[in-house]
Amino acid sequence: MLNDRxxxxxxxxxxxxxxxxxxxxxxxxEEDKREDDAQHSWHIAVMTMVLNEYANEELDDKxxxxxxxxxxxxxxxxxxxxxxxxxxNKDKRERELLAADKIFxxxxxxxxxxxxxxxxxxxxxxxxxxxxxxSMDRLQPMLxxxxxxxxxxxxxxxxxxxxxxxxAPVKESSDK
Length: 176
Prior knowledge:
Helix content: 55-70%
Shape: globular
Structural class: mainly alpha
Mean pLDDT: 94
Distance between the termini: 54 Å
Number of helices: 11
CATH topology: Hypothetical protein af1432
Order of helices and strands: HEEHHHHHHHHHH
């Protein structure tokens, strides 16, 4: 029989499987298919391993990767909000805070506090790790759109200024 602590961890892990069903607006590079949250999180975690040497400051890579692997977990309950959707972004913060309470509340207290602190740090973008993580989160869909001929940008009429504004953290985290 499983102890309560392990059972709680397994329930959380099973819940995470739903990230594979949360579709983002960004298309994959070589397919006319939308990326899901799990693919996105994995991709940006690996990007960190490849691009970390370009950061302006020394990073705790393990912390950055942890942030990236959990940064979109709240979308299990808040849904994915397209970054260029003005209406959807009006209540995004409130929806995600409620979702964070719910999803991280599934974990035992020690792990819940660790995950919530990482998620909060990512959202605030005030540490070098959080800024670099946010950069990867913004760079990856930009690369997808660039290499798939502007897919999402064209579909939703996103202008150059909005794109440059969205990827501003990339310049803040690396001038290389």
